[in-house]
Amino acid sequence: MSRIIAVENLTLDGVMQAPGRVDEDLRDGFRHGGWAHRYNDPVQARVLGEHMATHQGALLFGRRTYADFYGFWPHQTDNPVSEVLDKTEKFVASRTLTEPLPWQNSTLLPGDAVRTVVGLQREQPDRDLVVLGSGNLLQTLMRQDLVDEYLLMIHPILVGSGRRLFEGTDLGDLRLTACVPTTTGVVIATYQRK
Questions:
Q1: Which among 32, 63, 126, 137 has most CB atoms closer than 10 A?
Q2: Alpha-carbon distance 108 to 66, whole Å?
Q3: CB 149 within 8 A of CB 157
Q4: Residue 42, C-beta contacts closer than 8 angstroms, at least 6 positions apart
Q5: How many of the other CB atoms lie within 10 Å of CB of 93?
Q6: Residues contacting residue 30 through CB under 8 Å, at least 6 positions apart
Q7: Residue 56 has pLDDT above 80, yes or no
Q8: What are the CB-based long-range contacts (under 8 Å, 24+) for 125-129?
Q9: Which residue spans within 88-163 are E strands per DSSP?
Q10: Is 130 helix (H, G, I), strand (E, B) or coil?
């Protein structure tokens, strides 16, 4: 079966909500959006680029993150990330979306997320499925012990409130396989299930 890899930005207090933009995710009155940008540096770009090169596969999104990425990335001109995301195969777990999905190379995984993702893992055993953001989907997959690896970019900021990645999950032990500090204080830690 293919592996599921979560790539997530986190605050030091575990918040994953709205790292990219002020208005990215205002649920529950969250007012700290855009907290990750000031910590970007060449080290982080290099590590993420190396990860993308070694974990070639497909992206796996929940509905909300897919809509957010589609609303932003295809409109960024002269950005190599946009081109990579456009060309990459994308799977979207949703009970409310319908096909055809608007972003090229996107396929809807309707119905029960766990069942459809496990089916996808069996159909494409040689390709990793990389989850970006997609907190609700990711927590559903974590509760079923389906996430094999976590690439966590832990930022040196406390926001105090917001949606947390590991809230309400009981993961057990993880094994640290890599740890890279950046020039801005972000710790890029890779964990695998034991």
A1: 137
A2: 11
A3: no
A4: 183
A5: 26
A6: 17, 18, 161, 162, 163
A7: no
A8: 125/1, 125/2, 126/2, 127/2, 127/56, 127/57, 127/58, 128/2, 128/3, 128/4, 128/5, 128/55, 128/56, 128/57, 128/58, 129/2, 129/3, 129/4, 129/5, 129/57, 129/58, 129/59, 129/60, 129/91
A9: 90-93, 106-109, 128-132, 149-155
A10: strand
pTM for this model (two decimals): 0.94
Q: Cβ of 24: how many Cβ atoms within 10 Å?
A: 18
One-letter amino acid for residue 91 of the chain: F
Q: Are 188 and 9 in contact (CB under 8 A)?
A: no
Write out the two tokens for 100.
């055809």
Nearest residue to 139 (alpha-carbon basis) of 114, 112, 172, 109: 114
CA distance 186 to 180: 8
- Tokens 């989907």, residue? 137
Residue at 194: amino acid letter: K
The full length of the chain comes to 194
Say how many C-beta atoms besides its own lie within 10 A of residue 96's C-beta. 6
Residue reference for tokens 């119905």: 111
In whole angstroms, give the CA distance from residue 115 to residue 68. Answer: 24
Q: Which residue has the tokens 């559903």?
A: 140
